[in-house]
Design brief:
The chain is mainly alpha-helical. It is built from 22 helices and no strands. Helix 2 packs parallel to helix 4 (about 80-95) and helix 19 packs antiparallel against helix 20 (about 395-405).
């Protein structure tokens, strides 16, 4: 682990200018460690985060010397080596700037560079070298501009135009690239153009031949597109296909099938899939993913209550950032489904009512019916002491309420709600994912406060 790269750096020796091959060999090892760290962080587990921290430490120790070698000596190295150095420096800054605070503590990376803007500038510099890494650096920037608006909607107005511009340029050069077709689908979905997104994801899947994993990613996004259109059985169909062909989490795939078929009224089939999801998770060797821990707890509860559910499909969609991507005409339809489910509940069933209040608040927020949304969010806060099982509802409600207040220009109140979401709760479902959303949203609210204006 890192010994090869470290030995090269030692052999090269500090205090002298490295040769081009020496620098390139070292920076390749650095980038390998950065990519390993990034992949581990995406697993969202403490164990993986610790391993990511070790990989990032190895990368950073070598990167410092690589950076020193390049400064003032750009003419000494070829464009491919320079591009790799800029990319490595950019990725370190970018990755560390986006790690949620909780995970930063786990991997003990305090004090490392975490300047997001510097990271983006260095990635741009890597693109401009027109080197072997340029296309990958451009893809990294494209993922940044397309992903951020889906998880932190307040960023949409500043990030989506950049994504569209970059994507247009990339597709002129690579018109049938499955990767760029997939990115186009993400942009279209973020703009609530669901039909267009579905077409682009299908085209991406059809173009992909060599890497089936990219085809599976298209299936995953197609499943959500159908869910956003309230086409429950079609969404379940894509998750069924993923359960067969993809190894990421068969437990989650089975659970997603279950909730969408349950939402469609196919109760018997849904119950079988709930049980199947639990079996997949229970017999999995190794650490469970946070999503699998959620599935495990949820199915255990369903067994106790004889599989009584309210709006399981809508809930899973909301947890996966559906509300800010659903086509607006579908939101009143979703609210109608939600109202029907709430009418069947005992008003004293605070746990399930709280989930419905959260969904109601999120949907009304997207329709810009802010008074109605505020009513549902504040109802959750009024029942905070009674919510013991569905503990994710409280921090999610704080975050959504804070985001809504920011749009309304009530920035101090928005900051208070976001801070409560960040600091007031722990050990709840989807905690790392919400932390990531907070990590992206908080700096923007601080910027707006400094400028004394919301920019949405």
């Amino acid at each position: 682990h890192g010994g090869w790269g470290a030995s090269i750096a030692h052999m090269a020796g500090k205090g002298r200018v490295w040769s081009n091959p020496e620098l390139r060999a070292t920076i390749v090892q650095v980038i390998a460690n950065i990519q390993l760290a990034f992949a581990l962080l995406l697993q969202e587990t403490v164990t993986a985060s610790v391993r990511a921290g070790l990989a990032m430490r190895r990368a950073y120790a070598q990167l410092e010397e690589c950076t020193h070698q390049v400064q003032g000596r750009e003419d000494h190295f070829d464009r491919h080596t320079l591009g790799l150095v800029y990319y490595g420096m950019g990725m370190v800054n970018y990755v560390l700037a986006h790690i949620p605070a909780k995970m930063t503590k786990v991997v003990s990376m305090l004090g490392y560079p975490c300047d997001k803007e510097k990271g983006l500038q260095l990635l741009e510099a890597a693109v401009n070298t027109q080197s072997v890494i340029s296309s990958f650096a451009q893809l990294t920037l494209l993922v940044h501009h397309t992903l951020l608006p889906t998880v932190a909607p307040l960023l949409a107005t500043q990030e989506l135009p950049k994504a569209q511009e970059m994507l247009a340029a990339a597709r002129l050069k690579h018109p049938r690239s499955c990767i760029h077709l997939h990115a186009a689908g993400r942009v279209s979905r973020a703009l609530r153009h669901n039909d267009q997104a579905r077409s682009e994801f299908l085209a991406s899947a059809e173009e992909q031949v060599e890497l089936p994993q990219l085809q599976h990613l298209a299936y995953f996004d197609l499943a959500w597109c159908h869910a956003y259109d309230l086409q429950w059985e079609q969404a379940a169909g894509f998750f069924q296909e993923l359960q067969v062909v993809n190894k990421w989490s068969k437990g989650f795939y089975a659970y997603a099938q279950a909730v969408f078929l349950d939402q469609a009224g196919c109760r018997e089939e849904a119950i079988k899939l709930y049980l199947q999801a639990a079996e997949f998770v229970d017999r999995k060797s190794g650490k469970l993913l946070p999503l699998e821990q959620f599935v495990q707890r949820r199915v255990a509860h369903l067994r106790q209550c004889h599989y009584a559910t309210v709006v399981p499909g809508l809930e899973l969609m909301m947890l996966h950032n559906a509300c800010n991507q659903m086509p607006l005409p579908n939101i009143p339809k979703a609210l109608a489904i939600l109202q029907e489910g709430m009418h069947k509940l005992d008003p004293c069933d605070v746990e399930n009512m709280a989930v419905c209040w959260l969904l109601s608040g999120c949907f009304h927020k997207e329709l810009k019916e802010f008074e109605d949304a505020a009513y549902f969010f504040e109802t959750i806060f009024a029942h905070e002491a009674d919510i013991r099982r569905e503990t994710y509802v409280l921090p999610f409600a704080r975050f959504e309420y804070g985001s809504m207040l920011a749009v309304q220009g009530r920035l101090q109140e928005a900051k208070q709600q976001i801070d409560l979401a960040k600091e007031g709760y722990k050990d709840f479902a989807y905690e790392v994912r919400l932390s990531f959303r907070i990590q992206l949203t908080s700096p923007l609210i601080h910027q707006w406060m400094a400028e004394e204006q919301p920019c949405v």
